[in-house]
Amino acid sequence: MKILFQSASDDIDAWLAELSRALPDAELRAWRDGDGASADYALVWRAPPAFFAPRDGLRAIFNLGAGVDALLALERAQPGTLPRGVPLVRLEDSGMAQQMVDYVTHAVLRYLRRFDEYDAQQRERRWQMLAPHSRATFTVGVLGAQVARALAALGLPVRGYSRGAKQLDGIATYAGADGFDAFVDGAKVLVNLLPSTPDTDSILNARTFARLAPGAYVINVARGAHLVEADLLDALASGRVAAATLDVFHHEPLPADHPFWRHPRIAITPHSSAETLRTDAIEQIAGKIRALERGAPISGIVDLARGY
After folding, report:
1. Cβ distance 187 to 159 under 8 Å?
2. In the predicted model, what is the mean pLDDT of the chain?
3. CA–centroid distance for 263 within its chain
4. CA distances in angstroms from 94 to 3, 98, 202, listed in the order given
5. By CB count within 10 A, which of 58, 61, 78, 191 is most buried?
6. Looking at the whole model, is its pTM more than 0.85?
7. Could you tell me how many helices (H) and strands (E) the chain has, helices first?
8. Separation between Cα atoms, residue 242 and residue 266, nearest integer Å
9. pLDDT tens digits for range 106-151
10. Which is catalytic among the residues 59, 271, 278, 290?
């Protein structure tokens, strides 16, 4: 069994060492530009087009993350880049879900208790008590419905949105294009966890912000392509949006001259809301490779048309 590993990270040796322990019978190699030799399985993260030069025997491509938007963007730009008939497999959780819950919960509670405003007051050396927001009206809308249960457990009114209909106990759920406006209407917090697809790009825009409750909060932990940056700046200037927490951006690292850095109502983190945990990811990928070797089905295969 031949496994080809590609990543721009500086810890390739650590990945290969752990993969060797998880799959001791595998022949592992790190990809270098010009390597078109055969492989059974490819493990990739933001692979360049040259990686997908024709090679014999490829049975599956494993993406080293949950989001496959970078690979699908390559395919849209250059149709035929991804080898036809070879399944693309995304990571399923591998420790990222709990990290996302932690990040989003912290951001929501920070706004609920107005700690962001206390931070501003501290910088001004101003002593002033602020009444917390009412939980009963602090409605949180979660695009993606992945952390909705954790937020509902805090006693907050929570709405969940997804492309297809879902049922979540104690949570109002909405689905599809027809349900989006009802989902967003009057929400005090909007959390975005959607996959990045042509249908969801620019979904955080002026029209969406206008339907939120006045002085709402926006939390984006999905992809920078979801956000129309100028629309957010306009909504902050008008007071329609009170503050935003952003972990992802159109260009990363965020350029030093970007206006988000200087904005007093925008909190920035460097795409760190949920990192791939190497040991968990390798355990999942190795298990799926072993299943494919014995002819068993696996989960996590990406629907290229839907984008996830």
Report:
1. yes
2. 95
3. 23
4. 20, 9, 28
5. 191
6. yes
7. 10, 12
8. 9
9. 999 999 999 999 999 999 999 999 998 999 999 999 997 669 999 9
10. 271
